[in-house]
Write a structure and sequence with these properties.
The protein is α+β, with helices and mostly antiparallel strands. About 30% of the residues lie in helices and about 25% in strands. The protein has a 4-stranded antiparallel sheet with strand order 1-2-3-4.
């Protein structure tokens, strides 16, 4: 990615992501669909729709689910439900709950821009003990099984920022 991180930023990223690669190998981290898997909707008009029918509700759900995914108290089961193809990442996500660095990190969504009825770009900040350590990060949310989720590609990008590698990313 070419992003140079300070020591404090690297620790925060490591706390949020690198613990994911310390668990058992997990297959299927790739996102071959460009971050747009799950249920799709056919546009009603001849031009493709660029947002869900209820844009406000979708944005609220994306923001809530993104923040919840990174909250220290979120269980592995809940993280699995909030991550695209989350079951494939269960062992990696399980490591987050016991890592002391991950227990200090959180996320704050600053913008959501819809790219389709089932996809959005999310701009967010990575927080450590409530203080932003990385700002204006970009990720994607996808509608899968009628739930707006953090995309697998966003998780993989976060792992890459920590200079770690995860199988399939």
């Amino acid at each position: 990615m070419g992003l140079v991180l300070s020591g404090r930023s690297r620790i925060a990223v490591w706390g949020a992501a690198a613990v994911l690669v310390l668990g058992p190998a997990v297959a299927g981290c790739s996102d071959d669909s460009g971050g747009r898997t799950g249920k799709t909707s056919s546009p009603a008009a001849s031009a493709p729709a660029t947002a869900p029918a209820d844009r406000a509700a979708a944005q609220a759900e994306i923001e809530q689910n993104w923040v919840r995914f990174f909250e220290p108290g979120t269980s592995t089961d809940d993280r699995v439900k909030l991550l695209e193809n989350g079951e494939q990442f269960r062992a990696l996500l399980d490591g987050m709950k016991s890592n002391p660095l991950a227990r200090q990190t959180a996320a704050k969504v600053t913008a959501v821009t819809f790219t389709s009825p089932t996809g959005a770009t999310v701009t967010w900040d990575l927080l450590e003990s409530g203080t932003p350590v990385l700002s204006a990060l970009k990720g994607t949310a996808v509608l899968q099984d009628d739930v707006w989720k953090l995309s697998a590609s966003s998780l993989c990008a976060l792992v890459e920022m920590s200079d770690a590698a995860a199988p399939g990313c």
